[in-house]
Specification:
Strand content of chain A: 25-35%
Structural class of chain A: alpha/beta
Helix content of chain A: 25-40%
Distance between the termini of chain A: 22 Å
Largest interface: C-D, 39 and 38 residues
Low-confidence stretches of chain A: 1-5
Shape of chain A: globular
Number of strands of chain A: 10
Mean pLDDT of chain A: 94
Order of helices and strands of chain A: EEEHEHEHEHEEEE
Strand order of the largest sheet of chain A: 4-1-5-6-7-8
Radius of gyration of chain A: 15 Å
Number of helices of chain A: 4
Largest sheet of chain A: 6 strands, mixed
Oligomer: homotetramer
Chain lengths: 172, 172, 172, 172
């Protein structure tokens, strides 16, 4: 890993299933705060990180304005390695958007199918894999889900299975 | 990621805190089966894996004979990418041992400070990061703990903090 | 405890927060199967029980027809001790309804504010207390929530706090 | 429930599996603080309680001196309803001891087979049932485990199954 990683990793929080909680008075799911610090502590993570919450929304509600703001934060960040937590429904869209606006940085988007607070979440596994991919991969925009890493231009969420897959299989 | 990763990842299980359980009749910790499949399922991991349990022991009890067997399995495996789950106490020793006997493969050792079954384990996070590092890194022997990846020749467990650290900081 | 308890306890399942799950494809909460057997196993419960699922609904959707069916099952059950799992919103209503139709049996209604599958549920605690109250109390209709046992004619859910309370404090 | 319950419930903590934790540096189980308040909060318990930690020990290490102290605390407590958390191995012995020294109060001993912190504990279920039995039963010394309530003079732990059982079946 190169010297730039000593600057640490910037986290940009946008919401998504990852951070949803259960409101016991209304019986509905809602956003309060991100659980990212708690998860990194549980993982005994010792990598230097900076966490910044940009929004707490369902990714289906994300607008172009929101994506412009995310891109701006990626460009302005001192760090060259950035992880974005994001709802899964439009994660691939945001990856594509960022590819047209940000370059020279390693950016990994990740999220979860089950809220972290619900006990049986994939979130901690995904977070571990995003942490590793962002450190190990060269500049580019990636999606880290299902234990895999996808390039921004070859990934989609399969709505039937809930899994991420390549649009076309390649041997690059 | 290169074409060799289509062969999938080989897991070699050796035990360690990762897989310890609580015996409610004796009040002692013990090994039964590995929880690896359950953890990969929880992480919705869709990477092709082969799992092989070699032993279920405390890493303080690991002998040279055991390490020779692990090295043999690494060399004979069809896969070029291998993850070894291992107790943390001698994980760095085994990494060093393998470096002298195995080459041309990406091998990542990982483990946990808290048993997976105990609810607040770092195991799922470490597994996610090991899955990512093994796919992304070039051939070599690595230790993946605390969200970091260490080269085999520059890692030790700090017995006081329970964390892995570099023996000497370098700018490689 | 009298001889009638050797007949065991009848569980009638009606749904409620207790048994809700998270649908990871739609992001919505839904009912699948009851988790009661799993919970009793976790509690190492050795009391003889019979479990019967009558419906799996939000208690706000419960109709008079549904309550008539519940009352019928209470009356026809061979057991003299019955626990009904129920959504909290109309639990007190159903208790009142049953009081007008069932007599000579100890019936305890219970539920949860957080789904059992969400990791931080009050469900297991409530289940333990319902199991105990139903064995120890004389015939009557009761609500067991918040570690307390309420008589059917003196209980309501406080919508603001989510807690059950007596309508008027008495010294009986 | 009679007027005396308005005084609330006194908890006496003695340790046992219930409150054991995992020391990630040594890999051993140990006692730190009791988790009782946390568990009552999880159960949304609204009963008035007073908690007093007397010792934090394995019940196999409990001496007659320890039991005399427990009995003294039972006798001196203002409350008429007392729950004692206790290791399971000698829980029945302590119940018998207390029966010879304390009278006029409802005392329920309970514990767990799996530590509360280990995710799959029976502790929360047992706590719920102890809370209910202590409120509902007349003065006497009881053991609440496995969803059942045993009189002090007719209970033992089956070392093979880990379950509590009556010494002889009776129809009282």
């Amino acid at each position: 890993m190169d010297i730039r990683s000593v600057m640490g990793i910037r986290f940009l929080i946008t919401g998504g299933t990852f951070d949803k909680e259960y409101n016991e008075l209304t019986g509905e799911l809602f956003f309060k705060d991100t659980h990212l610090s708690e998860m990194l502590k549980l993982g005994r993570c010792r990598v230097k990180v900076e966490i910044r919450t940009l929004m707490m929304i369902d990714s289906l509600d994300m607008t172009e304005q929101d994506r412009i703001m995310i891109a701006d934060h990626c460009n302005k960040a001192a760090e060259h390695k950035i992880i974005i937590t994001h709802g899964t429904d439009t994660m691939a869209d945001t990856a594509r958007f960022l590819a047209s606006r940000v370059s020279g940085k390693t950016i990994v988007l990740t999220g979860a199918m089950i809220p972290y607070k619900f006990g049986s979440s994939d979130g901690l596994f995904n977070l571990g894999s995003a942490m590793a991919f962002v450190q190990a991969l060269p500049p580019g925009i990636y999606v880290a889900m299902n234990g895999k890493c996808f390039n921004w231009d070859n990934v989609r969420k399969n709505k039937k299975t809930g899994e991420f897959e390549e649009i076309e299989l390649r041997q690059d």
